[in-house]
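Escalated from tier 1: manganese (II) ion holo job.
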Amino acid sequence: MSAINTYIQENFSRFTDELMELLRIPSVSADSNRNADTSRCAEAVKEALLKVGCNHAEICQTEGHPIVYAEKIVDPKLPTVLTYGHYDVQPPDPLELWTSGPFDPVIKDGKIYARGSCDDKGQFFMHVKALETMLATQALPCNVKFMIEGEEEVGSSNLGTFLEKNKEKLKADIVMVSDTSMISMDNPSIETGLRGLAYMEVELTGPNRDLHSGVYGGAVANPITILAKMIASLHDDNNHITIPGFYDDVLSLSTQERLDLNKAPFSLDSYKKDLEINEVWGEKDYTTLERTGVRPTLELNGIWGGYTGEGAKTVLPSKAYAKISMRLVPHQNSQKIAELFTRHFESIAPDSVKVKVTELHGGEPVVTPTEGIAYKAAAMAIEECFGKKPIPTRGGGSIPIIALFEKVLGLKTVLMGFGLDSDNIHSPNEHYGLFNFQKGIETIPLFYKNYTALHQNSK
Ligand code: BES
Ligand code: MN
Ligand code: MN
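Tier 2 regenerated the structure:
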């Protein structure tokens, strides 16, 4: 066994304990009651980076949650990898569906259960432990910079400014991110694209106050009824999105590209079984892999209004609300889509209600190159570690900052994620396999070695 793998094996139970410590900190970025915890988590990440041997680490304050920056510079002449991740997590609710506390990590069946175990504490922490391993075994071949942020789950709205202001500090040759998933541990894969996002909130107002539904009902528009109709009209019978102009810029795939995409191992039966659904749903004439990978979608994330408490209340509410997000593909633009949505949603509202549309946040889609030394280095590392060539796939999720790495810093990204779609990220009982955690720590040093070698050869 290599010195690196021996070191990982000998220290793996400590690595796991350290990850569990990090998972105990409830760094929920969306919840301002957790701000102190979120800052405490940034401190813990900084300490972890210093402890493994970074020669510099700092907490960078922003208008929102802090960013942790750290570096280990071996030799300025060598290439530099900028590792990005996020220490913030999604809110844990609904709490009653967790089988153990979301911030009380436990190991069951070879997996760590806790909020953030996969997304993204467990994944970025692999890079911290991989750095420890490389330094302990004298195997770090290049320079490393870390940027671990605390606002990814709420849209990274302060990170763009941070990139603009710190171009020099963040100078690197490639961005490395572990915040995506693989098809399975038997079918390793690398995501080569992420969708963009346009996230909207709508508010409908009917009468100026809540009314008695017997006294006024049937004579005054109920904003919940109107909202339900408006929402239902956003998809047609083929489940196409009806917003005029929505598909105008969508990059369509060639027949060959579609064939390639659908070659990825995927079982519709297991998919349905896992979700306990009788049938899948989606845009006509596209497969499930296409629907989540290369086609744009519109999804209702929440809808509320009126009385939702215990028992009955006969009310005709004044207001109804919904949160609606659209996933975007190349070459759609989130600003343009937000404007098209707003115009359309306002235009379909009847005179009986007033409508207010707000854009919450947005982000651009990305495609990461499969040509070039960085993808090659990652593919070789995965093949060496998993015994199989990784399959390039398109992910359905979004990491808005990736587009900005290219736009602001001119840097390409490799998405070398080790999660699984079944890890329940953003959902109760999120977990991360110890095997995935270990494989990740083993693969990362190989990536560094391959990347540095290919980089030196390409000069
Ligand atoms: N790590 C996820 C994105 C992801 C998940 C990519 C699975 C590929 C596979 C990230 O933390 C995330 O949840 N992003 C949000 C967007 C953000 C602006 C709230 C998302 O995709 O909903
Ligand atoms: Mn994430
Ligand atoms: Mn997430």
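Residues 27 and 38 are 4 Å apart (CA to CA).
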